[in-house]
Amino acid sequence: MTETVSGSTARRGKATRKGLRMARIFTTPGVHPYDELNWERRDVVMTNWRDGSINFEQRGVEFPDFWSVNAANIVTTKYFRGAVGTPQREWSLKQLVDRVVSVYTRTGRENGYFATDEDAEIFDHELKYALVHQVFSFNSPVWFNVGTESSQQVSACFILSVDDTMEAILEWYKEEGVIFKGGSGSGVNLSRIRSSKELLSSGGTASGPVSFMRGADASAGTIKSGGATRRAAKMVVLDVDHPDVAEFIQTKAREEDKIRALRDAGFDMDLGGKDIVSVQYQNANNSVRVSDEFMRAVEADGEFGLRARLSGEVIETVQAKGLFRLMAKAAWECADPGIQYDDTINDWHTSPETGRITASNPCSEYLHLDNSSCNLASINLMKFLVGQNGFDVEKFVKLTELIITAMDISITFADFPTEKITETTRAYRQLGIGYANLGALLMATGHAYDSAGGRSIAAGITSLMTGVAYRRSAELAAAVGPYEGYARNAEAHQRVMRKHAAANDQIRTLDEMDKALHAAATKQWQDCLKLGAKNGYRNAQSSLLAPTGTIGLMMDCDTTGIEPDLALVKFKKLVGGGSMQIVNNTVPKALAKLGYQPEQIEAIVEYIAEHGHVIDAPGLRLEHYEVFDCAMGERAISAMGHVRMMAAVQPFLSGAISKTVNVPESATIEDIEEVYFQGWKMGLKALAIYRDNCKVGQPLSVAKSKETDKAERVEEKTVVVERPVRRRLPKQRPATVTRFSVAGAEGYMTASSYPDDGLGEVFLKLGKQGSTLAGVMDAFSMAISISLQYGVPLETWVDKFTNMRFEPAGMTDDPDIRMATSMMDYIFRRLALDHLPYEKRADLGIFTAAERALQAAGEDPATLHAEEEVARETLAQSAEIERPADPAPTPAARPQVAVIESHQARTADAPLCLTCGTKMRPAGSCYVCEGCGSTSGCS
Questions:
Q1: Which among 90, 176, 333, 365 is annotated as catalytic?
Q2: Is residue 72 a contact partner of residue 61, using CB atoms and an 8 Å limit?
Q3: How far apart are CA 469 and CA 237, in angstroms?
Q4: How far apart, in whole angstroms, are the C-alpha atoms of residue 752 and residue 730?
Q5: In whole angstroms, what is the distance from residue 358 CA to residue 344 CA?
Q6: What is the pTM (predicted TM-score) of this model?
Q7: What are the TSCPD domain coordinates in residue numbering (predicted)?
Q8: Which residues, 6 or more positions from 721, have their beta carbon under 8 angstroms from its beta carbon?
Q9: Cα–Cα distance between 72 and 55 in angstroms, integer?
Q10: The domain boundary residue, chosen from 519, 552, 585
Q11: Catalytic position from the list 70, 189, 283, 361
């Protein structure tokens, strides 16, 4: 796309440097990119999910006609600046993009990035085109801050440092607070702080890092609740040889036990609940930094020494495998700690002469020097899909050059929260280019996510992106100079470049698409090595894979970051309000690529829309099922499938990958040990695991086992039902009245039973007498009651109406059912708890708070029922069953994969958005709300 004016004669002397020549990618000379689009006016109205009141309204906003309602809503509410209702308020995407891009272009002109004014204009137009066409996006702080009167903060990722002094610890608290106030997150390694097993200079015993974590956690929680942006996001890292590592590992697991106890005692411990603030350490992700020495000791079942922080001497020896199991057990219980592989991280470090990499940002994708920051940008890969199986390599290369140029310019004008971060970032100029929509691209081209072909394409794209990024960095070094720290790290930086290039040579291609990607990547790495040896590099880091939460929705991406598709069915917002359920657009593209005819595609899509999966879809061949595997649902990708994909792209990233490996609730501690161990073997830099339903605060529902479903279907086919006879209730019958509240909406339910047990009548009161809602509920109640009297089992109604989703939905005042996806969901869960025996409820995944507490403790909930307990103990004695030593649930008691919205195949543990109440979806190691764009910490 570009070249320096001086070409091959460019020298490093500042006086001879000349700016870059820019070539057009998408735009036409003499035509402004905005003029090629159809723009339309829309109204953005966001309502409160509890009572329907309007909490945001801006009418007449302007967007291109191809932007979805969701993307336009998110940009309007999140990124438009100025007070709503004032002339200063932005109302058009043009204004937003102009505000940001004008700063980039002006700074580039002033600092010698462009050879001529014409090159600056080309840069300006190409950047605007790419942004308004959703080809890529900067990270959120750019949209928040650039071009405004506030601080020009462009970075989303920060790494801090703390030494073993009280002054340093208090400074750490202050620096985190400043970063959180700006809506960003930070990470820190506390391993320099001496352990609680060491002495102070005064002779007393040190407090240890875990104790100081309490103060930092309280600070983060306070800023989260009082800030105007999103919740604080932070990472705390501790080295595996720290004497307090066992206490650190178990910190959050112990707090999770406390949460369960308080929940079962009736306290509000849901996410955002009023009582959750009494629990500590909930505002950080924790990770243990392990060394190759430790992992080899685990592999050999050997011993490992824990070292004093000041002297470095071994003060305690432990069994490495036991410590490793403690990590896996804690992650099994509460998803923390994650793991970071120290030697792998530092083996790929471009600036080791300046210092080691000790920590990461909250989502673990940014790994570099202490007191540094990184600004991010992500490419929408689906914009480069050509036909059914082509990837526009040339445009991808040119766009990557454009983005790297823009990102480097941003460091020149950016503001940073502390002087130390300013100094380090200006000296090393760390960038984080990445991508989104990989999962959608693979599906659309007929590649399974967990397949050799899928991994080859992902590796090729990532290698090409990073190769171009560093080649462009070398060109920028010729134009405006290498980064300040390059001279002392030149040999190490070039060594890492050769490692990237060597890894590229190991890619094994399988079809035309990945062959083209690999050939282009090979050329880019060759040019990168030559130019880098001559000019040096402008940036110490260039690439990583971020979660792309809000910006992924802004670009209308079906999948975020490196993630596969979450589900085949999603909800699409409509102009004027409301939503509709649609099958993801990538599904028809994939079917066409696989050779299906239009009428076959239509039939398969209709089947998916009804069932949410492809199993038994008409005409779909078994060998094609894997193409439609998703992160959740009937054919969920295995944990090792996710790890293998991460391993395929990791050698081509300067940083790491923001991704949580989800495992089903049935996963064992041994399963988590294997994932952590294989992550080390496969060369990952960082890894986090989340086991479904391991944390309190999210709704719990257990799907029926496939065996049970199959048996029921067989029974339904074979049982002959005679003409039904209505069994009326006597005039006097036992009844219970339940007052309930779902998301603030109140109601009453009267349930009458037969004298010899069995529910026979239900009446519901919702809304005012005479209202439409009250009339509909009366009719619904009569229909349910008559069906029960004609012999329809209650469990049939429970199975049909639980997990039904519509507003109002959210928190309830029932300690046994803390969250409900609708009024119907709550009502039939309550009826099941009151009128169905434990075995039937267990099949339906409906448990009381006490039963869930026993499950969490690894015990059988059937022990709560006296008769069943006697039978269970008798059986256990006759079989001489011994309880396992580990707290993992027994196979009989361990629920299968949790599903609340089984049709959408979404994780049951995803929290409700605290802003709008919509169920959030995973985005890397965070969650993002598709309704309003809010995130749980990622940008």
A1: 365
A2: yes
A3: 29
A4: 10
A5: 12
A6: 0.78
A7: 731-833
A8: none
A9: 17
A10: 552
A11: 361
Main-chain dihedrals φ then ψ at residue 465, nearest 5 degrees: -60, -50
Q: Is 361 annotated as catalytic?
A: yes
- 689 with 675: CB under 8 angstroms? yes
CA distances 168 to 160, 161, 172, Å, are 11, 8, 6
Based on the residue annotation, tell me whether 504 is a catalytic residue of this protein: no
Residue in 157, 363, 557, 926 annotated catalytic: 363
938 is catalytic: no
DSSP one-letter string for 233-263: EEEEEEETTSTTHHHHHHHHHHHHHHHHHHH
Quote the pLDDT of residue 585.
84
- Which tokens go with 400? 């990557």
pLDDT, greater one: 737 or 577: 737
Q: Is residue 438 within 8 Å of residue 461, measured between CB atoms?
A: yes
H helix or E strand, kind and range, residue 494 = helix 486-505
Helix, strand or coil, per DSSP, at residue 327? helix
How many domains does the chain fold into? 3
Strand partners, 763: 750
CA-angle at 623, arms to 621 and 625, nearest 5°: 80
- Rounded CA gap, 374 and 410, in Å? 11
- Rounded Cα distance between 17 and 766, Å, is 75
Whose structure tokens read 């801090």?
160
254 domain residue, yes or no: yes
Residue 615: burial class (beta carbons within 10 Å; 0-12, 13-18, 19+): middle
Amino acid identity, position 418: T
Is residue 532 within 8 A of residue 125, CB to CB? The reply is no
- What domain range includes position 806? 734-925
Question: Residue 94 corresponds to which amino acid?
Answer: K
Residue 837 one-letter amino acid: P
Q: Are residues 260 and 319 in the same domain?
A: yes
Task: Note whether 144 and 168 are same-domain residues.
Answer: no
- Tell me what pLDDT residue 617 has: 95
